[in-house]
Design goal:
Elements: H1 2-6, H2 8-23, H3 30-42, H4 47-63, H5 69-85, E1 99-104, H6 111-124, E2 129-134, H7 139-152, E3 155-157, H8 165-178, E4 183-188, H9 195-212, E5 219-225, H10 230-242, E6 247-251, H11 261-268, E7 273-277, E8 285-287, H12 290-298
Parallel strand pairs: 1-4, 1-5, 2-3, 2-4, 5-6, 6-7
Antiparallel strand pairs: 7-8
The structure holds guanosine-5'-diphosphate (GDP).
Guanosine-5'-diphosphate binds near residues 105, 279 and 280.
Catalytic activity: GTP + H2O = GDP + phosphate + H(+)
Protein name: Signal recognition particle receptor FtsY
GO biological process, one term: SRP-dependent cotranslational protein targeting to membrane
Length: about 300
């Protein structure tokens, strides 16, 4: 299965590491906990989440007098699956009008690609989709989105580079209503160097959307690059300050050994992971399912 294969490096690093520590497991002593801690940190589970997990593991060991290596592995798997399953990973859908999805994230994380893939998912489901190129900061971003529009055979609303993002959003919302689309997906610029600007721009964009489509945006998705490890958490916190996020899309999980970031995002951000990117192709976006993910990782 593709998910499992794409997680190979993370499996080797994280699960292989846990297995390695467990081969010589006799009793849960300090050395054992420290070794486990090192494994989690090396797979980018992050310091905060690692400490929490180790504390929970300590409790688990205290409460269970007879412990085997299998029990401990089971502890990790169950712990993961339970955490994940408490979140709502479905996309919200508008009643009646078009569903508006705002997509943000810093340059290079895979934002445009994700929009292209998501369009493909929605189209396969028989939905009519419109794209809006509101990242007017980079000419390449507009061009890229147009290419994904062609690939998916959907329209792209765009203005010239450097124009006001809210103006293209306004046009996009008008077009979404008049063309009666089911989904309108808006690309936005992700300039983190000026948090105030980012905040103001996103606020303005949301105001325009709300004025045209009540209750919109129905989803504000943040795209994060899984290969950047703890950096992704920092980006997420910055965007969380700037705007209300409804979900995360975690890209590039294929070929990274830092997949432990999924666990850190899940625990530290309190924003559900809605999709994961596991490749560069159009069909390499998967709805995130916690127990499926835990299975792919551990089994
Ligand atoms: P943007 O600047 O955030 O819009 O980023 P792009 O969508 O242009 O993507 C940047 C690069 O990451 C491109 O080369 C994409 O093909 C690649 N990419 C995006 N998502 C994935 C993914 O899930 N897996 C892999 N391996 N590459 C990805």
């Amino acid at each position: 299965n593709k998910l499992k294969t794409s997680l190979n490096k993370t499996r080797t690093n994280l699960i292989g590491g846990i297995d390695r520590v467990l081969t010589s497991f006799k009793k849960p002593d300090e050395e054992f906990f420290e070794e486990m801690e090192d494994v989690l940190l090396s797979a980018d589970v992050g310091i905060k989440t690692t400490m929490e997990l180790i504390d929970e593991l300590r409790d688990h060991c205290k409460n269970n007098k007879i412990l085997s290596a299998d029990d401990i592995k089971d502890f990790f798997k169950k712990n993961l699956a339970e955490h994940f399953s408490s979140q709502n990973n479905e996309l919200s859908v508008a009643e009646g009008g078009p569903t508006v999805i705002l997509v943000c994230g810093v340059n290079g994380v895979g934002k445009t690609t994700t929009i292209g893939k998501l369009t493909n998912v929605l189209k396969a489901d028989g939905k009519k989709v419109l794209l809006v190129a509101a990242d007017t900061f980079r000419a390449a971003a507009i061009e890229q989105l147009k290419i994904w529009g062609e690939r998916n055979k959907v329209d792209v609303i765009s203005h010239q580079m450097g124009s006001d993002p809210s103006a293209v959003i306004f046009d996009g919302m008008q077009a979404a209503k008049s063309r009666k689309v089911d989904y309108v997906i808006c690309d936005t610029a992700g300039r983190l160097h000026s948090k105030v600007n980012l905040m103001e721009e996103l606020k303005k964009i949301k105001r325009v959307i709300q004025k045209e489509i009540p209750n919109g945006p129905h989803e504000s998705l943040l795209v994060l690059d899984g290969t950047t490890g703890q950096n992704a958490i920092m980006q997420a916190n910055a965007f969380k300050e700037a705007t209300d996020l409804t979900g995360v899309v975690l890209t590039k999980l294929d070929g990274t050994a830092k997949g432990g970031i999924v666990i850190a995002i899940n625990r530290e951000l309190n924003i559900p992971i809605k999709y994961i990117g596991i490749g560069e192709q159009i069909d390499d976006l998967k709805p995130f399912n916690g127990s499926e993910f835990a299975d792919a990782l551990f089994d």
